[in-house]
Hints:
Blueprint: H1 2-39, H2 46-49, H3 53-56, H4 62-65, H5 72-84, H6 88-98, H7 111-123, H8 137-140, H9 147-168, H10 172-187, H11 190-200, H12 215-220, H13 239-242, H14 249-261, H15 265-277, H16 285-294, H17 321-329, H18 336-345, H19 361-371, H20 381-393, H21 397-409, H22 417-429, H23 433-445, H24 455-467, H25 471-489
Helix pairs in contact: 5-6, 6-7, 7-9, 7-10, 10-11, 11-14, 14-15, 14-16, 18-20, 20-21, 21-22, 22-23, 23-24, 24-25
Amino acid sequence: MGDHNVMDDERRGRVRGRAPLAVGAVAVVLAAATLTVAACDTRDIQFWRKNDAAANQCPRPASMTGSEFNAQETGLRLLRRAAFRGDFFAQLELGSRYAAQRATDKNIEDPIESSVWLAMALANEQGFAPINRVDRGWLGGWRPLSRYDDCRAWERQMAYQRLDRQLAQMTRDEQEAVRDRVVYVLSTQDAQGFRTLARLHDSLYGPYGEPEDNPQARRAIGRGTHEGPGPRVGRRGYPTAASLFQRNDVDAYLYNYLAVQTGDVGAYVLLKDFEKSSPGRSQYGRFVEAKARQWVPPFEFYPNTAPQSGVPFSDESRPRGDAYEYALTRMSDLPFVHVGRALRYLGVTDTVAARPEDLSKRQIETLEAMLGHPMESRLSWLERVRAIQLAAVNGSSEAQLVLAVMYAEGIGVPTDYARAFHWFEEAARQGSPEAKFALSTYFALGVAGVSDQDKAQAVVMRIESALSGFGPSASRLQAVLAQVSRSQRR
């Protein structure tokens, strides 16, 4: 009997011992839940918000989302200016505007342009770089790191979805147009832009240069699980968006190398890290160095085509650094008549203007409208450069020749022998004897990384130039022939 009493006492003791533990565990859970809800409004908890766009998206200032039709062109220019300079939310807004998600934007609808800015937003570090890394423990993990981190993640998830849908409906040529425009915009952002291009082609990163473990990147390639707000993603992910940029070590190395050429020290560190990140990458060094010297952007400036609305896709990139600023001031060395000829070719004027004063206010505004620039009725140095570039892009052999000389001499644009060679070639294809003579000089001397020395090709180009009646070439050809005759007589 005594033994039974002892056993009962032991059981009651164990029960009494467990009760405080159970109560304590419940109290901890309730306290954690209370703190979580108190620290963050219930609307911020991903599980409850689901796919409510109004609750999930990041807020926008009225100046960015204004829908007034009369101010549409002005608003687009402001957005483009911010987007060219790397504003994540301006890029997202342009993606929505050109997709005509609002009825007031139907007149500017353009899926290619919309896809360009959605891709730019996805590649933008402002969209995925963490803002708050406070370690809240395993219970704190139930809520987002911060409201800003959470809404950006939702914005990127939606951008992936829209971009994939739009690209899937395009032809290969249209997808190539999207890719080329993205490359051009990033190439105007100096070292940061080239580093982004390197990540876009590097298989060690996500599809748009995010960290490989980024949730949106993993969902896009069909590897992530769906957590938090945003559209449900199937196992296949967003394959069309994820494959817009093909991964390869050569292009990744190339863009890292171009970033170094801007003089950015951080880019050099990243290049060395890239070389060591995977076996065999450093072997591309010499090949990439030669390729980099010949590299030119897909466009001379952003294609200023436009939807039927007539609102042009303005190039809002601006000269960057002392080299660009100095080159612009040298436009005074270029006779204005070359700008006048470009303006006549473009249909801005009926005659060739020899001086800036010969242009009327209306003619200057016509050029500014073509370029998508604000109507200031004053021809800036940059607009003079753009006039020649626009005429060259549209097929004027004379403008192509002038632009080639500008790149060769650093007038209006920084010295770039690869681009100079490119425009000499374009002018030569149209029969320009001056361009053929210039190319003969390139081949005769050889320009490192741009054109190899080729004496035979130099003679051919000079013969063609002389036959077209170009004086300097004819005299040089006579000297060459005389030298050949003397050697034969010996």
